[in-house]
Specification:
This protein is mainly alpha-helical. The chain has one domain (10-211). Helix content is 78%, strand content 0%. The protein has 8 helices and no strands. Helix 3 crosses helix 4, helix 3 runs antiparallel to helix 7 (180-194) and helix 3 (71-102) crosses helix 8 (196-211). It is globular and about 55 Å long.
């Protein structure tokens, strides 16, 4: 879980962090959707993804409307944050893919993409709950942050991924949380995502960049 945050502007940390986490999870889902087009799983699986995509689009519309006056600032922040996250996120994906390959799972790259999308969506929901708990004093802000919770996206993603996994025959017996390299790579990713130092560095770059525009 995140480091204990003692920060004068905890609400800013929470808001930017949650929105970036959600954006990362959504991008992983969209990546899975692009790779799904190269598969041949039939109408049922494709329909499940379409339902997932509808939930993603519903969330995206919410963010567009809610943040319409600040959307450029959040986008700028996300761009700088990507520079810190791309490498550990790729390492996490590669570690999962290796587990699948070592266990003889066909199309390991695709299944790794699914697992990253599923795990990060669930992670984003958990961190939403964690941060909301930390800033309960900001009652009106909590309502807004709860609106950003990817509840429906997570449920649709879990259903989609579960049904795709069910097509694997024979069913692999893999517990990712027991895979030491996957756990190690996720810890590094977790630190990069939630670090207060990372937030402050990225936020300062954002403000500096926007001031020059």
């Amino acid at each position: 879980m995140a480091q204990e945050v003692e920060y004068d502007n905890l609400l800013a940390y929470g808001t930017y962090t949650l929105l970036y986490l959600n954006d990362t999870a959504v991008n992983c889902i969209l990546d899975a959707g692009r790779k799904l087009k190269k598969q041949n799983y039939g109408n049922y699986i494709n329909n499940l993804y379409r339902k997932l995509d509808k939930e993603v689009q519903r969330y995206t519309r919410l963010i567009t409307v809610t943040l319409k006056d600040d959307i450029n600032q959040f986008a700028e922040f996300n761009g700088w944050k990507d520079e810190l996250i791309d490498a550990p996120l790729l390492a996490y994906l590669n570690a999962i893919e290796k587990v699948y390959r070592d266990n003889g799972v066909p199309n390991a790259e695709f299944y790794a993409t699914l697992e990253v999308a599923r795990s990060l969506t669930e992670y984003a929901v958990n961190i939403n709950d964690y941060i909301v708990e930390k800033i309960k004093v900001h009652n009106s802000a909590i309502v807004r942050l709860k609106d950003y919770r990817l509840t429906d996206v997570k449920d649709a993603c879990n259903k989609f991924v579960r049904h795709v996994y069910a097509l694997l025959q024979p069913q692999p017996t893999i517990v990712m949380n027991a895979e030491s390299d996957v756990v190690a790579k996720f810890k590094i990713l977790n630190e990069a995502l939630l670090s207060l130092d990372s937030f402050e560095t990225t936020y300062n770059k954002t403000i500096e960049s926007l001031s020059k525009q």
